[in-house]
Amino acid sequence: MPVIEELLTEARRRRAFSAAAWSVGTTDQTHSRGLLGTTAWSSEVAVTEDSRWDLASVTKPVVAMAVLSLVEDGVLTLDDTIADHLPSYAGTDKAGIRIRELLTHTSGIPGQQPLYRWARTRDELLAAIRALPLLGPPGAQVAYSSQGFILLGLIAEAAAEATLDVLVAERVTRPAGMSGTGFGVPDPGVAVATEDDPWRGRVVQGEVHDENAVVLGAPAGHAGLFGTLADLEALGRTLCARGCGAAGRVLTEAGYAAMIAPRTDQLASRRTLGWQGVDPVDSVAGDLIGARGYGHLGFTGTSLWVDPERGSYVVLLTNRVHPTRQNPAIGRLRRTVNNAGFALASG
């Protein structure tokens, strides 16, 4: 049994997830790929190529690529502020936060906020974000912020005069060849289950796991994309090809280079525009990815990591929050799978 399949089979035996998929490759070669498990612990339905995985925060870098495409077209600049595009933020402590700070999680807007617990409508949730006190001045620290990416999505919509789902489709998923990726799923039956959610009182399957995204009720910048294994492979190949997708360019060479350049090395965590970099200690990217590697995690158990120097990627898709998010097993497993993947890709 190949190493990655063995690692994931053993992890499923320990009930780290009910389903997993993986792929290791380059722009023109797939070194390893596969699917295993069932769409839910209570189901005998095996995951297939058509299965849709809740990508969770892997949505963020996809939205970031759409934003950078708007920068390439002159619709936005990285130094535009929130108030430039969202007038309701004028006069607030967030008015002067720049797009580059939203992309690098240095905005100071608090993250990990369960706003859905008291904000029951879209307007209430957006008002709650507007009222959140900043953690500190913009640019002073890396503080992961889904709330910042919600605002980033709103800025992109306002600047381009189009909804986020249209922007992502036209500027990222379509040229990248990600034909099965979108906000939501065509049929709940093809979705991989996530959490038995106390807030909803049921197992979530076929709708976004992120509760703040549920309250927003529309495509959001921080979470909500579903995709297939083949789609994440297509994204990995596009990134290894420096922004050139199967059906067209997602980003120019200049846009791609700007996207992956480290922006926060003077701070505690390495961030690029929309992506997480490789930290020197305890990086979830593993031990064998190059120093300029980048990637992103999804809370549901998904991830994509790219080594631009070697031109290789590792995709891991799981439903590790099923049936509960109180499951830490994915942490070390992510590192071991990435190690196995980048070792394989290096020959």
Task: Describe the structure in your own words.
- Strand 8 and strand 9 form a beta hairpin.
- The chain has a six-stranded antiparallel β-sheet with strand order 2-1-13-12-11-10, sandwiched between helices. The chain has a three-stranded antiparallel β-sheet with strand order 3-7-4. A two-stranded antiparallel ribbon has the order 5-6.
- It is built from eleven helices and 13 strands.
- The chain starts with a helix and ends with a helix.
- It has helices spanning 3-13, 59-72, 82-85, 99-103, 122-131, 146-160, 164-176, 211-216, 229-240, 253-260, 330-345, and strands at residues 19-26, 30-37, 53-54, 182-183, 196-197, 202-203, 225-227, 244-245, 248-249, 276-277, 294-298, 302-307, 312-318.
- By secondary structure, the chain is of the alpha+beta class.
- The longest helix has 16 residues, at 330-345.
- The chain has a single domain (3-345), classed as 3-Layer(aba) Sandwich (Beta-lactamase).
Write the layout of secondary structure elements.
Elements: H1 3-13, E1 19-26, E2 30-37, E3 53-54, H2 59-72, H3 82-85, H4 99-103, H5 122-131, H6 146-160, H7 164-176, E4 182-183, E5 196-197, E6 202-203, H8 211-216, E7 225-227, H9 229-240, E8 244-245, E9 248-249, H10 253-260, E10 276-277, E11 294-298, E12 302-307, E13 312-318, H11 330-345
Antiparallel strand pairs: 1-2, 1-13, 3-7, 4-7, 5-6, 8-9, 10-11, 11-12, 12-13
Helix pairs in contact: 1-11, 2-6, 2-7
